[in-house]
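haha ok so turns out i had the wrong file open the whole time. this is the CORRECT one, sorry everyone. sequence first:
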Amino acid sequence: MKDEITPLRSGHLEVDGFRIWWEYHGTGDRECCCLLNGLAMHTKAWYGFLPRLTDSYDVILYDYLGQGESSTDDVPYFIPEFARYLTLIMDEIGVSKVHLMGISYGGFIGLDFARLFPERLHTLVLSGILLSHEKLFELYQEISSLIESPVGQDPNRVGPTTSERKSTNTVLVRDGQTIIVGGLMEDRIRTNVSKVPWLGDIPLIGWLFRYESDLVEKQNLLIFLTPTIIREDQDVQRLFEEKKNRMLEYKDRHDLPVEYMDVRPFEGRSGAGSPGDSMATPQLEELEPLPAEETPDEGTHAEDTPPESMLQQEEDALKNYEITIKGADRIDSPALPDLPDE
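then structure:
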């Protein structure tokens, strides 16, 4: 049956220096659907299904770069470009909108087509594609520490000696899911020596005046990560609102005054202070005015003397105060000679 199927139109589309093979099956006057290949497929892999579709629809098939009759250049391929190539094929055929069905790898192309060209899409069907919010992350850990230099090396000349331990992991994490990454462990033994000077260095009997102890230190590095995947601008605004509300709730729960918290990016609690809004005005709390300074009565005690009186008393005390420097001879400044009149 596959050998008997002949497309109504077919050909190569020249774009970006590549040749894209496409086929158009049907009568040319009905609604059109497009079947998107999987990763290791080509257009003829759909021929067994075409008789079921061409009774009601026209069908577009095309090979991606590296498949079937299309160019197989050894260059990077990009899914958004494959979606754009489909629009060029539709323009070549004269089709304005399609029913799109993608299987496996073709499902991702269908998603990008719906995102980039929604006005050219009737319906979207996905098969064999896992839609999840999981991402694959590569984690790199390193611990560096200073250790004692080997015997015979002067650290002032050759530099300090460091110990490095590294670990690389690959994890599959959902959006907002916290993971714990470990594996970097260290056992370090420190020897402390306490001794009586001179006596502790005497061979044999010096042990009577010397004490040594070993201190074992164990370290296990644990990293807690909560990744957040940003897909659209709305995700940035949503995260901003969440962080803002957490800060404001923390402030209210602990009764923090505004001077201990930078609230300039926020304007109230209505979300008006969005990121990058330099005109956002913080809602500052009104401070109570300080009480007026009371004027002391005439019978004020010495410890309640106003600042002006205290300064006057200090000036009077300094007038009768002399400083004598022992071992210093007094030198009178010589008189300056009279300058001749010009």
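The helical segments are 50-53, 79-93, 105-116, 155-158, 233-253, 307-319.
again sry for the mixup
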